Amino acid sequence: MQRDTTKQYYALHSWVGVVTAVMLFVIAFTGAVSVFSRGELKVWANQDIRSYTDHDFVAIENLIRDHAAAVAPAFYDHVQVFFPGPHGGRALSIIFEDEVVTQAGGHTHRAIWFRHHPQTLALLSRQEGDLNQLFAQSDSDMADFLVTFHADLHLGSPLGLILTGLLGLTLLASVITGILIHPKILKELFNFRPWRSMRLLFTDTHKVLGVWGLLFHGTIGFTGAILGLVTVVLIPAAAFVSFNGDQEKLLETFLPEVEPALTGQPAEPQLASTLQEFSEKNPGVIVGNVVIYGWGDKGSVMTVSTLGDRLNARTYEYSTATGELIRDYTLFSRLDGSVKVVLDAMYPLHFGNFGGIAVKFIWFFLGLSTALLAATGMMVWIERRAYGAEGKLSLTTYNRISKFTAGVCGGLIVATLSLFHAQLLLPMMANTIGFWLGVVFFGVWVACGIGAMLRPNAYLATRDLMLLAAITALLVIPVNGVVTGDWIINSLLSGDFIVAGVDAFVLATGALLAWSAFNLPAQRPVRQKSSQQESRHAPVASDPDAEVTGLTGDCS
Asked: Is the per-residue pLDDT at 422 higher than 60?
């Protein structure tokens, strides 16, 4: 009975992995790169904030006062300030917002949006209209592009979020079934035999990556599923069950709500002094944005949302007129017990934006291991059927599947690296750079996929794509130097260590890719091929554990 149950788990594990392997690679790889999006890649992608230091709160407050004097008092309902810098945007954004009740009883938000240069604070633009539409039209860069692609594949809500959420569930299911079919899982920790055969190379790599990264893979699968499905499935379902479908009532019940007691009496906002005092008392905590409810009123309330090295980013609520701290809370602080701790930790755990640069590197390499887990699982499946006894299709068909897998996975690496060049070479299209980044990214990806399918075999296709990726990476430093003048030595001497660090990391990546390309075979080794083909006629092993290939692997 236990043997039959293990076989069933094995079959489920295999099919889940095979069906979703390529998409899991795409999501995991872009997720690994996205770890550096808020901070390192944001700074590298925007020359105006490469040398950005601290916020000048006094100058920013004066700008808000000047704009407030020029807009109608109706827009004093909410004044939002988004600060520029590594964890913000490429410009200082000051948004005056008027919340209007519609005839249907809902709410719409009209806004006036001022954008200022991050260093000179010169006015860059003034826009007026629906707030959601203004956000949709706001500038983006390669960091934003990668994060959005990882989150919803640029398919938007609900389709994209549902798809990535389901992929998170499949990763979690693969982890669970992988554990169930490996009763002696700890034995796989050091079981690596790369020189015996190509199949064992893929199989052992798959197992080692799966076992060593077991906790991480499960965490990423769980948090990815929650983040993808919460807004489009979980919240509507909870609202339907408990609040007669009223999602706003649900959010008001469980999420913090700011309710200022406006008096109608004027008072001077103490924005700069409050933020300066906050920064002095909380070193290392980054002020992300500020929202002022009821600008210029004695009862006005100001919220300060923070970023930092913690699993539960906090919001601080102050009296705008006096600077007195009213309360501080996390996003899910209204919930009880361990539930709020888990929910508050979802986003930081998924993207690794806690614990500083060390955690980011750990999350990056573990994210790559998740991507390789999916890719090697697919290659094991192909190897066992193309050169083993289980294949029911022709060798040509399996070769095409293998080339397709190589084209999607290798092409994604090239396309991602091409974004560095597109970011530097498309400044004249600032208002539509997000669109053109997509053209470059998807164009390169499709071209690489077509090129891989035209090669004789997947080994040659993979080698060519690795070489192309290496060249693309190695050219980033010279292109950056020529376009911006920020050669890596100049960045080091001027103290722009983030820019220099990104350049150095991309250079190391290019060197590693070049080494891999020159050491990859152009075709499947002949000695292994003949011996593997003989096994096509051998009886299939009866021990289910002998068939197990890892956490996304084979299919019987």
From this structure: yes
> What pLDDT, on a 0 to 100 scale, did the predictor assign at position 530?
40
Q: Quick one: pLDDT at residue 434?
A: 83
Q: Is omega for the bond preceding 158 within 30 degrees of 0, making it cis?
A: yes
pLDDT at 484: 92
Say how many CA atoms lie within 13 Å of 478 toward its Cβ: 6
- % of the chain beyond a pLDDT of 90: 47
Angle subtended at Cα 205 by Cα 549 and Cα 521, rounded to the nearest 5 degrees? 115
Residues making up the chain, counted from first to last = 556
When comparing pLDDT for 382 and 412, which is higher? 412
Distance, CA of 422 to CA of 142 (rounded, Å)? 8
Amino acid letter for position 409: C
Q: Angle at CA 21, nearest 5°, toward 17 and 23?
A: 135
- Mean pLDDT over 503-513 rounds to 97
Distance CA 279, CA 277 (A): 5
Residue 313 neighbours by CB under 8 Å, 6+ apart: 305, 306, 307, 330, 331, 344, 348
Rounded to two decimals, the pTM is 0.85
User: Contact, 300 vs 68, CB < 8 A?
Assistant: no
In whole angstroms, give the CA distance from residue 475 to residue 529. Answer: 37
- Is residue 449 helix, strand or coil? helix
